[in-house]
Amino acid sequence: MKPPRFDYYDPRSLDEALALLDRHSDDAKVLAGGQSLMPLLNMRLARPSIVVDINQIEELNYVRASDSGIAIGAIARQRALQTEKLIAERVPILREGAYYIAHPQIRSRGTICGSIAHADAAAELPALALALDAEMILTSAKAARTVGAKAFFQSFFTTALKANEILTEVRFPAPPKDSAWSVLEISRRHGDFAIAGIIAGLVLESNRAVIAHARLVYFGVGPTPIRVTAAEEALIGQSASESVFEAAAQSAKQGIDPTSDIHATEEYRRALAATLTKRALRAALQKLGKT
Amino acid sequence: MATTRTVKLRVNGVAYEHTVEARKTLVDFLREDVGLTGTNVGCEHGVCGACTILMNGETVRSCIMLAAQVDGAELMTVEGLAKPGGELHPIQESFREKHGLQCGFCTPGFLMTTYELLTKHPDANEEVIKEWLSGNLCRCTGYQDILESVKLAASRLRNR
Amino acid sequence: MATTEPKLPSELPISQPRHVGKDSARMEDPLLLTGKVEYGNDIRTPGMLHAAILRSPHAHARIKSIDTSRAEKLPGVAAVLTGKEIKDWSRPVFGVPEGWTGYALAVEKTHWVGEPVAVVAASDRYIAEDALELIEVEYEPLEPVVDALKAGSASAPNVLEGKDSNIAYDRRFVFGDVDDAFASADLIVREQFRWHRSSGNPIETCVCIADWNPFNGMLTLRGGHRSPHLILPALVISLGISSQQVRIVQSPLGGSFGVKTFARYVVLIALMAKKLGGRPVKWTEDRIEHLIGNSSHAWDRHYDCELALKRDGTIAGMKMQLVDDLGAFSEWLAIGMLLKPLLCLGSCYHIANVDYSCKGVITNKTPQGPLRAFGLPPHFWVIEQLIEIAAKKLGLESNEVRRRNFIKKDKFPYVSPSGNVYDSGDYETSLSLLLSKAGYDELRREQQAARTHRRLLGIGVVSSIEPGLTGPPMLALASPRIFSRTSSPEGILMRIDAFGKIIAELGFPPGGQSQHSFVRQILADYFALVLEDIQVITVDSLSMQPSTGPISSSMAIALSGAVLGAAARLTDKLKRAAAVMLEASADDVELFDGQFRVRGVPGKSLAVAQVAQFMMARPDLLPEGIDGNPQATYVWNPPDRTIPDEKGFGRYSVTAAGAQHLCMVEVDRETGQVKILKYVMVDDCGVRLNPSVVRGMLMGGMAHGVGAALLEEYVYDDQGQMLTSSYMDYLMPTIMEVPAAEEHEMCTPSPIAPLGVKGVGEGALHTTPAAVLCAVNDALEPLGIRITEAPMTPLRIWWALQQAGSH
What we know:
By secondary structure, chain A is an alpha+beta fold.
């Protein structure tokens, strides 16, 4: 399993990289962490004539504060999710989610932006981006534009990213101070892609166990990560109780768009989504100290 | 030429300079151009971990990296663990004592993973150790003796 | 003067064995730990080319044309091989029963997705793969045969040309009076089971380097070849080459688990070498090729079984019917996996009346090939599950049913219904040990308590038999012409050099099972030497003694026998020289604690090295018939095996290791996921030559069994496309999926095998699938669910939970 021939560039500056993409557009692929692209190259399922390796662009390697949230540059590694203090302080659910992302060796090369741009619907980071209302900065030689997560993820492995653009930054706003979040995933083995997964966020009213806000985003159960607002609405204004969680779970079942493959049928995925809804809400509630 | 690349790097402390085809994987480069065959190829899609080496102190899967990407890097492979005179590294000694290997093919990958693990987390408990080892496949040992080997290595390194 | 073979370590000529039976540092480790070992893929020979194989994308198709001209013109490509040359230069690959295979490369038809269609040799693998893309093949797709149960019907298209059906093997074996057993039974339980295919998947794939010199006719093969003498006849027959012109140089292996005979690919790469006319070519199988194209898938079975019991739980008889989807060819020795259950039809239980019917059918899938435990894991699962079902129906505790049916310890050597003999065992004691170590009663209480909280905990307690050293007699049931033999030779050459060091030469390479180390251990105790004074090497196929190699749990037995036999011969020779030096009669000289001494005459003794050096220095003083060369060879063969009669009655194997395992699981009733909470094993493999080595292999076999029970499956769609063609979808267990297991030793030494050992190389894979699968069913039992399909994936379990109306 050896890659096919390609022309290789490893520009030192973002401008250089963007110029290359502008010139070669549809024939080029951006190589960041390589943990998704390289297997595809080895299997010759991807056959770009140009590979633009952005790992030498130091200006893209950052995790920094951005308003009250964080901004992550194109080649910041997934491992940073577990080691960066800024993330632990401002968006700790990212740190929790990293536990499910493959294995330590993958996380030392794989990039956060790369996973988001690759947009595997069963991956954790695209779902976290959607759940946390992340904003993506898409940069081309001519312009930079900001695209919200919902508009960014369009279909299987398909995003708003144009052929001459690089996802140079993802911004995660800080979630509400009184929110609690939970990431859960069902996979065949530890570190595998999710058969079904959930990011759940909960805010309760300040003096009673009534749900003020809820965020339910599912992955592995559709062509993109899916936020099921109907399930969220089933929670808001209700008491944080098992029967309410059950209602949300049933709503989630209908609000996703799963397919069947050798590991799971559509029906199974729907059932898992329902189960995960309840378990994630319980976990979030526990974090709020209100079991 | 955009289809080749000249890389200057250090492997196990020794400097190398090679011109390689851009598409050549890092593991093939190490095995063929640098001549260090200790790192093995098991799957070529980043799952089995047999090809694990250290790049600038972090474990990476060399089957899903390009040789072109290591210009200026410091690499460490299994050949860099033991002292040239024949003295095994404490991690290797521990694997030997606890029978943490049988056919040996996955072993270099486990040794390098263990090296980073114990460098960064010298007090790693069983849960952390297992998480770190979860990306390396072994078909012979069933992992238990590997786990014991890593625990012994941890205590040996702590007491060094 | 015959020396009797030591039947226990205490019978070695040493007052206290220091190495045999003890943990001992492995001689293989230093090179493995430092990356200095040379596996097949590490070999570089001058001018070596690299091969890549073009494989069929169709399960069943006619090849209308192949145009390799563009590929041949690619710079770096040396040659391309297609079916036309294959047909002219070779015969179909070896398979049993004969006549159900094809050529090493598809000639006019392709029979499975992944079947080789062309081979390219180029200056590197990258270019070779580029060249594959330039080969134009015109296929005419044909209707694939994918359903094994329909493959045997008259309306199914024939997969193989020239055959009038897809049934390669169909035989029924009846032992005892089955009709009477069933007629007089108080209870008959019947169930059907489905076992899906998996394979060995060592972390190192197959590697073969071939060099066929047209000037001297020598074919040299390097790489990870497990058993050179085993594949030699297959090469001779397929390639039409004379045997003394084949030289196989074996590299240490990165595991095998049955895979590394890969005879068809050795033939294929040899033919590529032939085309290259003297340039060596290396083929390194990549992982995707290994998953779809290596003829090593195993057990794709449909079982229909019945157990007949008396009211008190004693088993009167068993009927077992199975259909195994062999894939496109009945290749190599795969058929043996249908037959091996005959060696232990009743497992650890005395079942006198058995009707065993097995059918091997041909379909458009990857051919089956040898896999560790060789057809037995599904067999034991079926038996244990039927016992569970029967016990429940009879209102008896299932372990009590097991005890009542165990072969009693005073019945050994036990002649099983098929005539195969179990040498020793004490299953009741083993089971008691298991249950006590596992805290069984407490586990049942835990299960009860969990059930009150709607948690699904299950416990599986199972038994298995691991026949040690099988081989030709079993295969005679599929090809009497080739396999009416009792031999499974294992030979060794041993010599003492001028400095008193021992060199032992084996015919197979190290592959993880520490045989080189245990040879050293035995010799160190036999001659009272330090381990470092003994060298154990692998020599090539022209230099080696006849050898079957490490297959079918045999090396502890056969290699020990060879070592002891050669040591005895060498000792006999040295004794005669020592007699001259000691001025005594050879009959009065004995070896003990590394010294030759005269019996009853203390004070006069000579070290082994002294005697050897005397032999080499003073051949003029040696008695008639003794040369000046302290060297001996010995070829050990299993005693007492017979060629089976037409009913299949025969003595097939040498030892019978027995195992009892306990597994406790929790099933998540909402997701169907299984977590293994506890795993305990008791294994009786007789004397353990190196306890940590045995334990390590058992743990490995247990992990492999977890994979087989819960994770590993090759999935085909209805067009014969294999959907699990990478490690993303074919799921190997990682450290997270394998429980920490407890292992306890039980030892009933073999009265037959040397040193009391029993073969244990295949080990826990026999038992673990049954333990895990029965545990899952025990967890689901209160819901009225029984799953009879393996692996028990979360999807299958969830589906069963849904059917039962419970979440």
